[in-house]
UniProtKB/TrEMBL annotation:
The keyword Transmembrane applies. It comes from Larkinella knui. This is DUF420 domain-containing protein. PANTHER family: DUF420 DOMAIN-CONTAINING PROTEIN, HYPOTHETICAL MEMBRANE SPANNING PROTEIN. InterPro entries: DUF420 (IPR007352). The keyword Transmembrane helix applies. The lineage of its organism: Bacteria, Pseudomonadati, Bacteroidota, Cytophagia, Cytophagales. The chain crosses the membrane at residues 12-33, 45-68, 80-97, 117-139, 159-178.
């Protein structure tokens, strides 16, 4: 029984490692495609929807922390799995937008320009890193490995919260420059 559990754990660990590499690579490749796919004008609304998704995710993360501090595991589980599902929806929406629309250049000048790029670069970099942590945190929680879950969440939670909040801030900074 123990051997089976170790083998299963290694299998999931390998899958998480592969996904944590493949997801950012696929996103990077899709973003690098110069020929945009015409999916319709509806895709121009996706950045606005993504900002809402990031906002709700940040709120859910804060609620999840609150619930676990209150020892309300059921509410914690629901909010965190909802945040995870929203992350998946965000990823699909983000890819669809960039697959079908040119990137919007930031038009701000002065002190706001380096602030914007700092937030954008840190947001993107940490969004790549957080995939591995979040996948592990979810796996450990769902498989009942609570000690490993807690150890992973020490890193995953603040990074994920930062990515969610900076996603909204970056959106508000670039929103005036969208052509739609």
């Amino acid at each position: 029984m123990v051997t089976l559990q170790i083998e299963q754990s290694k299998k999931y660990s390998r899958l998480i490692n592969i996904l944590a590499i493949v997801i950012p690579l696929v996103v990077a490749v899709l973003l690098g495609i110069r020929q945009k796919v015409d999916l319709g004008d509806w895709t121009t609304y996706l950045p606005h929807i993504n900002a809402v998704i990031n906002s709700v995710t940040a709120i859910l993360l804060l609620m999840g922390l609150y619930f676990i501090k209150q020892k309300n595991r059921a509410a914690h589980r629901t909010t965190m799995l909802t945040a995870f599902a929203l992350g998946f929806i965000f990823l699909l929406s983000y890819v669809l937008y960039h697959l079908s629309n040119e990137s919007t250049p930031f038009g701000g000048q002065g002190w706001i320009r380096p602030v914007y790029y700092f937030l954008l670069i840190s947001h993107i970099s940490l969004s790549i890193v957080v995939v591995w942590f979040v996948l592990r945190a979810v796996y450990f929680a769902l498989s009942g490995q609570i000690a490993k879950h807690k150890a992973t969440v020490k890193w995953a939670y603040p990074i994920w919260l930062y990515v969610s909040i900076t996603g909204v801030v970056v959106y508000w900074l670039i929103a005036p420059y969208y052509n739609h």
